[in-house]
Automatic annotation (TrEMBL):
Xref: InterPro entries: Endoribo_LPSP/chorism_mut-like, RutC-like_sf
Pfam families: YjgF_endoribonc
CDD domains the record matches: YjgF_YER057c_UK114_like_1 (cd02199)
Domain Endoribonuclease L-PSP/chorismate mutase-like: 7-147
Identification of the protein by name: Enamine deaminase RidA (YjgF/YER057c/UK114 family)
Superkingdom of source: Bacteria
Source organism per UniProt: Corynebacterium aquatimens
């Protein structure tokens, strides 16, 4: 089986640089055999591709893509901490979706992150998850993703 870094190459995906924290925290930290990431926004080259509430300002389909971007930023944070190929299992994904009051499609949005994890990690990517609708996120981002992985 291909390593995770080889799988990224097969998929034509390059990990982005680790996003600079927007406050007083670190992007990822190792605790025993796990790495926990801070919430990652869908930064592309240091900027958000969209802002606002999903279901009002941002289409759910676009937010799905932003969840994919945010989880790549989380994977990049893990890679910088311990190396992507040390990941033995993705344990948990938490997705926050800045939601218009009537929007209830948070699980479909966070599937953007979950499905990309499955593409990269295969069976080792099977994880538990929360998809949470919130009133707002930092910098008016539409989505934020946290990741917990087990490492060898």
């Amino acid at each position: 089986m291909a390593s995770h870094s080889e799988r990224l190459k097969e998929l034509g995906i390059s990990l982005p640089p680790v996003a600079a924290p927007v406050a007083a925290y670190v992007p990822a930290t190792r605790v025993g055999n796990q790495v926990w990431t801070s919430g990652q926004l869908p930064f592309i080259d240091g900027a958000l591709p969209a802002t606002g509430k999903v279901g009002a300002d941002v289409a759910a389909e676009d937010a799905y893509g932003y969840a994919r971007t945010a989880v790549l930023n989380a994977i990049a944070a893990v890679d910088a901490e311990v190396g992507i190929d040390s990941i033995t299992r993705v344990v948990k994904v938490v997705g926050y979706v800045a939601s218009a009051p009537e929007f209830t499609g948070q699980p479909a949005v966070v599937n953007g992150a979950s499905e990309l994890i499955g593409e990269i990690f295969g069976d080792a990517g099977a994880h538990v998850r929360s998809a949470v609708g919130v009133a707002s996120l930092p910098l008016d981002a539409p989505v934020e993703i946290e990741l917990v992985v087990e490492v060898g």
